[in-house]
Amino acid sequence: KAGVTQTPRYLIKTRGQQVTLSCSPISGHRSVSWYQQTPGQGLQFLFEYFSETQRNKGNFPGRFSGRQFSNSRSEMNVSTLELGDSALYLCASSFGGSGAGGTQYFGPGTRLLVL
Amino acid sequence: EDKVVQSPLSLVVHEGDTVTLNCSYEVTNFRSLLWYKQEKKAPTFLFMLTSSGIEKKSGRLSSILDKKELFSILNITATQTGDSAIYLCAVGMNYGGSQGNLIFGKGTKLSVKP
Fold this sequence. Notes:
The complex is a heterodimer of chains A (115) and B (114). Chain A is mainly β and 115 residues long. Chain A has no helices and eleven strands. Chain A has strands at residues 5-7, 10-13, 19-24, 31-38, 42-50, 53-57, 64-68, 74-78, 87-94, 105-106, 110-114. In chain A, a hairpin with a 3-residue loop joins strand 4 and strand 5 (42-50). Chain A starts with a strand and ends with a strand. The mean pLDDT of chain A is 91. The termini of chain B are far apart. Chain A binds chain B through residues 4, 31, 33, 35, 42-43, 45, 48, 55-59, 90, 92, 94, 99-109, and chain B through 31-32, 34, 36, 41-45, 48, 88, 90, 92-107.
């Protein structure tokens, strides 16, 4: 079974721009969660999508948004980029059908650098 | 607020040593505890624990959960340089929320020297 894939792997943007990241979950997985990882804060939850609906949302500003398509692929968008948005963005997939707390499998991440 | 605390934050050992990593938690609706290993990229899944006192093993790694005292340990015996990584502990909740379905600790950075 193919693992979770994320594109692009690396990205350099400047302040004020916007960016879209993509995640394809493991086949059969319907839940996709997004995390931001920085050295100081560790892994912080952004949002989770299940069956094209946002099921949970973390404590991030509205500049961070996402969506999920009917094939479970997900995208996240960050508008008006700030220097502090530089981070590794990880996507994780799980079956998700029973709700929360199941094993999540991570993609390789997208490393975003904002200049 | 739900939280997961790992200790130590970093650890340096020599090949062949045995290490114990700690994870304690305070959450309102516990469902599972998971361990991940993160090298330079994606965290890779190691164990999921749901029952107290039952050890899970995989090669030189083992883990156990104590739901009464709210902690888990991850043991690595006969460490090798390839064990150098950040080890993440996460607690799965029965429901999601602003912290998500999995709440992560800050991780323990393990460095194994030859």
